[in-house]
Amino acid sequence: MLSVLILVAAAVALVHFGVAQWRAIWISAANQSVSEALQLETGLDADTVRDTDFPRLVSLYGEVCSDKRRALLG
Predict the structure, then answer these.
(1) Does the reported pTM lie above 0.90?
(2) pLDDT computed for residue 73 by the predictor
(3) Are 44 and 32 in contact (CB under 8 A)?
(4) Which of the four, 15, 25, 35, 74, has the lowest number of CB atoms within 10 Å?
(5) What is the helix (H) or strand (E) element at residue 48, kind and residue range?
């Protein structure tokens, strides 16, 4: 019975650690600045990137990585 309790506690700790790690990855990704090359190509200002700029970034991805897009679509 004690071994089951230890196993459950370890599993809960592992899940907790996984969630904390996932959040840390997203927070660090959100804190990355926009590169100068991307700013020049899209005309975006790194300090004022908004959700309305997303279509412009998607279209740039479609232009730059068209071969990957075809591979993903089938």
Answers:
(1) no
(2) 56
(3) no
(4) 74
(5) none
C-alpha separations of 24 from 19, 34, 61 in Å: 9, 19, 26
Long-range contacts of 56-65 (CB under 8 A, 24+ apart): none
Q: How far is CA 4 from CA 7, 12, 13, 14, in A?
A: 5, 12, 14, 15
> pLDDT by residue (tens digit) across 16-60?
999 999 999 999 887 777 778 877 777 777 677 777 878 887 888
Q: How far apart are CA 73 and CA 65, in angstroms?
A: 13
Residue 68 has what pLDDT? Answer: 63
**From the CB of residue 62, how many other CB atoms can be counted at a distance below 10 Å?**
11
Q: Where are the domains of the chain?
A: 1-32, 34-74
